[in-house]
Amino acid sequence: MTQSTDSFEEIDSAVVRFAGDSGDGMQTVGERFTDSSAFAGNDIATLPDFPAEIRAPAGTLAGVSGFQLQFGNSKILTPGDAPDALVAMNPAALRANISDLPEGGMLVVNIDSFKSMNLKKAGYESSPLDDEDFRKKYHLIELDLTGLTKEALKDSPLKPSDKVRCKNFFALGFMYYVYGRPLEPTLKFFEDKWGKRLPDLAQANSQVLKAGHNLGDTMETARNRYQVSKAPVEAGVYRKISGNEALVYGLVAAAKQSNRELLYSGYPITPASPVLEGLSHLKKFGIKCVQAEDEIAAMGVALGASFAGDLTVCATSGPGMCLKSEFIGLASITELPLIICNVQRGGPSTGLPTKTEQSDLLQALFSRHGDCPLPVIAAHSPSDCFDCAIEAARIALTYMTPVILLSDLYVANGSEPWRVPNVSDLPVIENSFASTEEEYVIYRRNKETLARSQAIPGQVGLEHRIGGLEKGEDGGVSYDPDNHEEMSLVRAQKVARISKTLDPIHIQGESEGDLLVIGWGGTYGAISSASRNLRDEGFSISNIHLRHLNPLPDDLGEIMSRFKKVIVPELNLGQLNVILRAKYLVDVISYGKLQGKPFKVAELHKKFLEYLR
Amino acid sequence: MSITTTDESSLTKKDFVTPNDVRWCPGCGDYAILNAVQRTLPELDIPREKFVVVSGIGCSSRFPYYMNTYGFHTIHGRAPTVATGVKVANPDLSVWMITGDGDGLSIGANHLLHLLRRNLDINVLLFNNRIYGLTKGQYSPTSEVGKKTKSTPVGSVDHPINPLLFALGSEATFVARTTDTDMKHMVETFKAAQAHKGTSFVEVFQNCVIFNNKTFDTVTSRDVKQDQVLSLEEGKPLIFGANRDKGIRLNGLDPEIVTLGDGIGQDDLLIHQPRNSNSAYANILAQMTYPTFPTPVGILRQLDGRETYEDALVQQIEHAQSNGSDNLQELLTGQNSWIVE
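Output (structure tokens, whole complex):
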């Protein structure tokens, strides 16, 4: 690779968005750009954004798939509010995304696709590229990606139709030139993915990527090049990780740290399927993966395996959580350890299956019939899913209870650099196993945690029966009114006691002041960025982000009391708000958004400012 | 987890009886089935702690509470899923699943189908009393058309499901039928079910004395039993009747009843062949219903050799483990990490 001699403009961060047909490989291109930026030492946050249809009619607005990432030389917490550069592979991609591109932003279009049929499908009467005002508004770069790709591959043995499909990598190569990204990680990706199986394809993609990069070198219009230097981060080994990947690894680690075998049981559902797929590939870790016949069965298999002594996990999304509810109640009353992950998406019902939302909090807290409180925790970023998986296992096994772990589509599909932990530093998770040395009384409890002890089928002398009917301490079916109330209370107290083991809440900003922002889940980056910016502007604003949503941390009420106002931004219509008001009698301000999109830093900034002036 | 095991050779029925009061209605067929299972288990050469009894919801599903083994009384229709989880987690356990016609063939039919096709080595006892007993007498999916119950005052209109055909349609590898009135036959059938490697499906005709009394009298009452029941014995011709003079012959694809003598001998009759890999024969038997035909009782199908789900799953894991490292640090670090100094 020849290093261009023209000068780079040094910038702190940049936001790039790739948009095209769902078959155009935009997710792949975005992932590669992410890898390359991670390799370059930048901090990154990504936002894949794709339609629910796998291949909606080509060229239509319904089929537009996008991938946005922000990379920078300091801590990057969000994928960015608006792109600095937009790559549009066809008119539909342009139309669906152009309103987000600020004036003066770089716009790279594949002019080959701007033909009457495609324009019509996108709802354009004439090509916007023929409009002088439009042309002046953006830094427009028109590339005939199809023609350039064909030309680059004129000697390739690939079929003509396969050659054209490499054009996404031409666009990527060009953008690598603009932002000075290294090509190596992508070339390695081609080799790893296709080198052995389809060497011609690996070769073609490499050629096209390089051709795109070289074009930048020779083009007059692409003289603006940007450079983003390395982000200063703690020393260590780093990798890029998505939320679902981190969840998978966290579960594997939790099984190891608790010395239990891991059984995962799932049913395919967007956006949780990658957890099932990811664990299915890890058989060498002894992981038992069952693809069940439905969501209910997935939960039943997990519960049966929990009874038999495994660490068991189900991951699903909202509709699957609805189906699992009855079984979650059974897991609660039988007091068996289990992790249920809900990777939230837009609801209710099928809702917005490929868009993010945080609207299942109240479901997680209350969806069982009966008085049935359960521990609920939420991951705030892709890499945090790893820690949350271990925390969920700790709670489940220490307290003998099902635990609900909330993720969301934004966290699950987004990715960021992750400092890989040393396995030797991971916490050891204690089990609550019964002793074969003494008489086994099923619901006799640990005085500190109130957990019952678990006897595993196969252990001599500990034979016992559990089930959905209320039991007395000895495990016998009991319809005694006082016993039912006592058992219900003790199950609730057991969950409540978890708060005794939580670290003090980390407050970003001063520990008292005008406005406290309380967040949970995937809004972490946007809230932290907006609050930090306002603090930099001199405002008295602090923010905290809750991992534990039940039980809530013991110091939460006291912290809230030290601020004049408390605001809770959520991607729902105010669900945590309901809980905080009920529990603390505080006049919390709710700020909800329900558009299937994450918060923008700017909109939070504006909203917080309303309460700071 | 356990290192020691109990001495399975000294187990008796008493070892499987819990101190809990059995709370089925007096005269319920479930007592006889419980008795039969408690007599069967000590004879299987399996230590007591390796038995797990899993059930759903309904009268039959109270069963685990009365078995002094590991047991799990779960939720309506979902016992096959929990049983699957137990077996996959520890294939060394002997898992017995208790269900009923409503639990197994209405709310839980989906799960039962998938258990049978996956062929986990689990014994399924489906108590068929053709009625919802625990909810006090509504018709069930095995009730005959026109059944008058509290919820069908002028008779039910839906065609019933045949449990044996359901099991055969799910490609179960072991399909049998027994009756709550025949202790010896129940014990024999349950032993055969345990001996079979794969899911064993046993339909037990069970009398609900309160809401559907005598529903199986055409099969179980002493005076008609021999004429109306076809006892299946492997390798033997299909002969029935008090005088052993009637048999089943195949006419094209249809079975027909013939009387022995007058030129018709045993060689003309169908020979019971439960191990025939073609399920057509078992399907013919399963469709034989009273009063057109005698009711077949015994093992209809017993197909050896199909791998169990848990064995296949364990083999994949063992294969992966023999070919790869389980180093967690390597997994976390991945192939594309970088070092910041």
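DSSP finds eleven helices and 14 strands in chain B.
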